Amino acid sequence: MTVKLIAADMDGTLLDSNKNLSPYLFDLVKKLKEKDIKFAIASGRQYFNLLENFEDIKGDLVYISDNGSIVYDNGQSIYVDEINTEEVKKALNDVRQGEGIYPILCGVESAYVENDNEVFLENARMYFAKLEMVEDLMDVLDKDKICKLSVFDKVDAENNAFKLLEKYNKDLMVCLSGHNWVDLMNPGVNKGEAIKILQENYNISYDETMAFGDYLNDYEMMQSCKYSYAMDNAHPRLKEICNYRAKSNDDDGVVHAIKEYFEL
């Protein structure tokens, strides 16, 4: 049974440590498209940010953005999961009281911030191409379809912001998505569920799906496919559940593994 869908994370997976894509990736995507193989970018990043990164081949890709909250295909959002706003309000108030942590509300039209800390904004702009400064994030909840609350931690999200926010796991899903990032979404929203939506839409099975990732927000995505590849630089807990290992993001691991599998 041949692979018909490939999904890959961005940071720590497709992007090397200098935040550069492989020079061979675009040609590889085109070759896969000729074989009717869909290639999905599955990221915590904003859709508009992904478009900027893949400008030359943007029409050849499927996009799973905001950690599975929004799925785009052919320029249209085919799935949007709006977050529970009452729980977001509570979490926002906690974040505002925290030290060195900053909230971002992620919507379909834009992402929104209320703090102008330079370190925070510099990091936010790496992931959000559309970023709007507002006086009060609470006012945004009625303005846009909000799918995710992202929280930037200047030091160590796993031991600071995540511990502050994990109490919301009853009503929201609190996900450690990077060394400095925590994401809060509706329960059941993740990259794996987004993969299942694509599988159902295109009649593609678990056995016909391949995925690459490096961090814990890729966990469910790895469980949604037979050909699950943890990058050599991946979090130890992700490596435990994956069926295969790819070279590191700095060694062109995704491109190398795909070429090896398809003998390209």
In short:
The protein is α/β, with parallel strands linked by helices.
How would you describe this protein?
Keywords: Hydrolase. This is Sugar phosphatase YbiV. With 264 residues, this protein is of the alpha/beta class. It has helices spanning 25-34, 47-53, 85-97, 118-127, 161-165, 191-201, 219-223, 236-241, 253-262, and strands at 5-8, 38-42, 62-65, 70-73, 76-80, 101-107, 111-113, 131-133, 146-153, 173-178, 181-185, 209-213, 227-231, 244-246. The chain has two domains: 5-80 and 189-262, HAD superfamily/HAD-like (Rossmann fold, 3-Layer(aba) Sandwich), CATH 3.40.50.1000; 85-185, Hypothetical Protein, Haloacid Dehalogenase-like Hydrolase, Chain: A, domain 2. Strand 10 (173-178) and strand 11 (181-185) form a beta hairpin. The longest helix has 13 residues, at 85-97.
Highlighted features:
264 residues; 2 domains; 8-stranded mixed beta sheet; Rossmann fold; Hypothetical Protein, Haloacid Dehalogenase-like Hydrolase, Chain: A, domain 2; globular; 9 helices; alpha/beta; 14 strands
What is the fold named in CATH at topology level of the largest domain?
Rossmann fold
Tally the helices: what do you get? Answer: 9
- Give helix and strand order, one letter per element, not per position: EHEHEEEHEEHEEHEEHEHEHEH
- On the 0 to 100 scale, the average pLDDT is 94
How many distinct beta strands?
Answer: 14
Helix content: 25-40%
Please indicate the percent range of residues in DSSP E strands (runs of 2 or more): 25-35%
- Going across the major beta sheet, what is the strand order? 5-4-3-2-1-12-13-14
How far apart, in Å, are the first and last alpha carbons?
A: 17 Å
Number of domains: 2
CATH superfamily caption of the largest domain: HAD superfamily/HAD-like
- Per CATH, which architecture of the largest domain? 3-Layer(aba) Sandwich
Please give the radius of gyration in angstroms.
18 Å
Label the structural class.
alpha/beta
CATH class descriptor of the largest domain? Alpha Beta
The shape is globular
EC number: 3.1.3.23
Protein name: Sugar phosphatase YbiV
GO molecular function: magnesium ion binding; sugar-phosphatase activity
Enzyme class: hydrolase
